[in-house]
């Protein structure tokens, strides 16, 4: 039996002698080599979101989201599916041997026998069988397996990209909720202040010390503030719902933002000499490159279809008319059946399939380049916003201080009888608008840090990313 299997092993060893896939080389990045310098000091590279986010409540929400978010769970299941499919494809590169056993009994009528007597024949057999194993002379099976491997790796990078996006989305939603809570508090404080002013003017109007115009103006501001409170109250409730959806579960009150402004991220400005090659380590860029590598292997599959395909079937075992003599000498049996399929004429179908595969590779290449260009633009936009945020925050804080002083002077002048209530209202509106804008800018500052974390692929490395190895 072993001697019968030797030819099969020798022929199988000859498979995979050629690979018709084009040689892969990482494309040149169609982006500048670095971002414009901004004169900032170089920071330490970030290790992960645990180092990046400093608020313990937000860290707790992120941990819940990574465990319970359904989109991320689907991405993880996609990896398992891709891993299984790769296992199916890689299994085809080696022979598949089955162990079989069979027994049969057949009766032949007398009319069909040469002796004129009915006969009963028994047959027992057992064998090892090789079923339709393709000799991969032109790399078709190997390229199918390599393409499946690249798809598995692409899916893994897609999951990493989804995780980074989820972390950023949760942080943004948490920040937005904190901001809306601040705005709601400010609106309530403003409503209380305006309600007190309205009550005083109403009393003064009852005594004839204030006109009906001043009373109507005061009531207008109260009703406007009441509408602002209701609007922000709705936004806060919707923000909690959005955060719970991202987390995939209801959140404990202890993990929600508390009173006052929040600072969730410890992200310094990226170094002035940060090379754009770090983008080639972004998970979505890596996923696009794996898709490009898979497209190269698909070309190898299409090219191999133009050449003959040789498959083997065979078996080796024992057979006997009786079970008792099945393993006795002389009962050995074997079969060997190679087959060849040679494409002759298909009206250009295989050639057109090859051309379609080559064009698909070019499409995937364009998609890879667009992914890099988009990543560069995202980082550039985030850095451009980062460069002016400190100045904008300083200017807005100065504006809040100035409008606060203006409101206080207008109030003092009105109470002293030297000004109109309209001046007080104008100063109060300006102060409220300036305070709301400052809250919004504080959100923009924190959100920009989160955006940089996301668009730089979860952080950055201080040195240029190492180029990917060239494979054949």
TrEMBL record:
Its main location: membrane. It comes from the Bacteria. Pfam families: OEP. It is found in: Cell membrane. Keywords: Lipoprotein, Membrane, Palmitate, Signal, Transmembrane, Transmembrane beta strand. It is a lipid-anchor. InterPro entries: MdtP/NodT-like, OMP_efflux. PROSITE patterns: PROKAR_LIPOPROTEIN (PS51257). Residues 1-20 form the signal peptide. Belongs to the outer membrane factor (OMF) (TC 1.B.17) family. This is Multidrug transporter. It comes from Pseudorhodoferax aquiterrae.
């Amino acid at each position: 039996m072993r001697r019968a299997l030797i030819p099969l092993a020798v022929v199988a060893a000859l498979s995979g002698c050629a690979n018709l896939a084009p040689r892969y080389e990482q494309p040149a990045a169609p982006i500048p080599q670095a971002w414009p310098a901004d004169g900032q000091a170089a920071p330490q590279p970030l290790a992960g979101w645990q180092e990046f986010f400093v608020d313990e409540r937000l860290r707790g929400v992120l941990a819940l989201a990574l465990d319970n978010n359904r989109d991320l769970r689907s991405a993880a299941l996609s990896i398992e599916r891709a891993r299984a499919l790769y296992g199916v494809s890689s299994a085809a590169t080696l022979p598949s041997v089955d162990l079989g056993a069979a027994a049969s009994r057949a009766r032949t009528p007398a009319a069909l026998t040469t002796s004129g007597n009915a006969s009963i024949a028994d047959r027992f057999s057992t064998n090892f069988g090789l079923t339709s194993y393709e000799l991969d002379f032109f790399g078709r099976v190997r390229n199918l397996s390599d393409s499946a491997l690249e798809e598995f790796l692409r899916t893994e990078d897609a999951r990493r990209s989804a995780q980074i996006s989820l972390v950023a989305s949760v942080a943004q939603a948490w920040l937005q909720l904190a901001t809306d809570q601040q705005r709601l508090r400010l609106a309530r404080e403003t409503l209380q202040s305006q309600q007190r002013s309205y009550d005083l003017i109403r009393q003064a109007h009852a005594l004839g010390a204030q006109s009906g115009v001043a009373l109507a103006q005061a009531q207008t501001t109260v009703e406007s503030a009441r509408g602002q409170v209701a609007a922000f109250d709705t936004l806060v409730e919707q923000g909690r719902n959005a955060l719970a959806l991202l987390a995939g579960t209801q959140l404990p009150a202890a993990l929600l933002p508390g009173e006052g402004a929040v600072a969730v991220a410890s992200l310094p400005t990226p170094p002035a000499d940060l090379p754009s090659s770090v983008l080639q380590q972004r998970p979505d860029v890596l996923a696009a490159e794996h898709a490009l590598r898979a497209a190269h292997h698909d070309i190898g599959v299409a090219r191999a279809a133009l050449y003959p395909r040789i498959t083997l079937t065979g078996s080796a075992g024992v057979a006997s008319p009786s079970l008792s003599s099945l393993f006795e000498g002389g009962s050995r049996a074997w079969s060997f059946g190679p087959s060849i399929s040679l494409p002759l004429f298909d009206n250009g179908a295989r050639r057109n399939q090859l051309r379609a595969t080559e064009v698909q590779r070019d499409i995937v290449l364009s998609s890879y380049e667009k992914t890099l260009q988009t990543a560069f633009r995202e980082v550039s936009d985030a850095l451009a916003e980062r460069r002016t945020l400190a100045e904008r925050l300083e200017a807005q804080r100065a504006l809040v201080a100035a409008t606060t002083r203006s409101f206080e002077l207008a109030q003092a002048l009105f109470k002293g009888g030297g000004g109109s209530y309209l001046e007080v209202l104008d100063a109060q509106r300006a102060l409220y608008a300036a305070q709301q804008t400052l809250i919004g800018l504080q959100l923009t500052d924190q959100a920009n840090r989160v955006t940089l974390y996301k668009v730089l692929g979860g952080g950055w490395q201080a040195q240029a990313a190492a180029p990917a190895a060239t494979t054949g």
